[in-house]
Amino acid sequence: MCCDLKRRFLLLYATQKGQAKAIAEEIWQQAGAHGFDADMHCMSEVDKYNLETEKDPVVIVISTTGTGDPPDTARKFVKKIQDRTLPPDHFTHLQYGLLGLGDSEYTFFCNGGKTVDRRLQELGAKHFCDTGLADDCVGLELVVDPWINGLWLALKEAFLMQKQKEDMSGGVSSSLSASHQAVNELNLSSEVQSLKLEDEGVGSSEVLSQKLVDISLVASTRDTKPSLVHSVPPLSESALNIPALPPEYIEVQFQDTHGENPHLASLTSEGTTFEVPVTKAVHLTTEDAIKTALLLELDIADTVFDYQPGDAFCVICPNNGSEVEELLCILGLAEKTEYFVSVEVKQDTKKKGATRPQHIPERSTLKFILTWCLEIRAIPKKAFLRALAECTSDAGEKRRLQELCSRQGASDYTQFIRESHVCLLDLLHAFPSCKPSLNLLIEHLPKLQARSYSVSSSNLYHPGRLHFIFNIVEFPACPARRVSRKGVCTGWLAELVAPLLAPSKTVLDAKGGSAPIAKISIFPRSNNAFHLPADPSVPFIMVGPGTGISPFIGFLQHRQKLREEHTTWEFGETWLFFGCRHQDRDYFFKEELASFVENGTLTHLKVCFSRDCSTAEVAPPKYVQDVLRLYAKDVARILLKERGYFYVCG
């Protein structure tokens, strides 16, 4: 910079699960070393900033949730800028850069960021750097790291141009034009092949807040391939650019063992939570099916829980009990399981705006925190690996953790951490000299999120009942993870309803009596789009391979009841495209679908089986998209001529 004063920029983040906040904090931490002062706020803190009068550059980090929605913390902001009475020059004074986070496995990739970006442009705001769209499917860091590296050059140019405008009314100097060209050459595409992270790309814009680590360790000649715990040249011989060490900000104190844990309803801010019994569990697949699918029925008759077909709801689930116990043993806290824990912010912390994580109760037992509050299965972020390295006494293990969080070790991180679904427990087994403190876990492990499921029933067809279906998620053992695991929620649900799946066996509790009815805590998830057409005469097409058929069973149950109760109404045609692997193993709701066709509720049922062998002269279609092509004219007619609806659930 041309002077010693640090130039301020506004840093806003909008997060659903904490990723956008963590990235914003990384930007804030690096800013000082580059001569900037980042004024960081959550987008929901509308009383802390004012874009209408903002004169400095604005940096926005925003995630996407649901089906392309902005995160909850951005709702008020988005609603405000979506006001159609705002003039097109409302933000002409504003210059900003935006980093969007998303997952390309979902249809509306990075739509939260795209929505804000598009609207700011419509209102006259200008980019001072290119928009970055990071993909969690392949690794956010592939876009996030180079975007942050390029941000500092872009900010310097923005301030220089701002000073130039203040000093003179003429054009931009040639040196500024060259700088501008350098910024434009920074390719922020999410395509992996366009992202080059080699050392020479760091030269002119060195990230000063990153430490250079040069520890040369001689590896065994027998280890010729990299693994979670071992690297090979050139990485094993490289100097490393590692992230700055995140400042500690949590203080944990153990207290007496008297008191009660919070109610599960306090773990969510989504409104009313309902504890409801599970009254039925059914296997939807045969024992030899590749995946195991279950249908559960919940009794909601004694609650005010209401839903429409197409709605979703969330299940509050715990971490696996044996994994919690194992973690407590490794941490040396097994004897303090039932101790109450007080969590406060450290008075001398260097973390800006540090607050106690809202998902951690002010007072609860250690076991409660690890069971219900922290996602101990979360894939560790690089900042967490950096912090864990500082808790590791063995030099070789510490070096490997540094490699995994370094820029040079990006591909190893993707292969051995992200793609292998490695979690904290796996790291502690792989690096036994790593002894993190409890406060470090609370600082870095994200909130244990409730899991969302589509409703698979109609309240007209099943009054006082709610059905949903799911596959039991399986994570087989691999070199980076020594044990196989089931999904956090689906594994827990399967274990919970095991007695209902084996009704012939009487399940007894510890005292010899009948085991209590299983109950789970749920809360509704808002949905304004995925519902049946308001006009029953409108035709619609449903595409639901595998468990994606779930909401459409509710659609068809509801439609059948409407047809029975309103015989004079006109009903449009209905199409269902369903696909599974094997006709005799995982054809969900086969009899019920046949009944819908027979009584006229479902006009057309098109099914395909991807793994079944066929002796037919012309092979049948394997996937739903293949069947859709066969009926392209009907699809076009329904959508273009009859203005029908098209639903997809995967």
UniProtKB/TrEMBL annotation:
GO biological process: homocysteine metabolic process; methionine biosynthetic process
GO cellular component terms, semicolon-separated: cytosol
Reported cofactor(s): FMN; FAD
TM stretches of this protein: none
Gene3D superfamilies xref list: 3.40.50.360, NADPH-cytochrome p450 Reductase, Chain A, domain 3, Nucleotide-binding domain of ferredoxin-NADP reductase (FNR) module, Translation factors
Residue span, FAD-binding FR-type domain: 271-533
Top-level class of the enzyme under EC nomenclature: oxidoreductase
Every Flavodoxin-like domain range: 9-152
Protein name according to UniProt: Methionine synthase reductase
Organism: Upupa epops
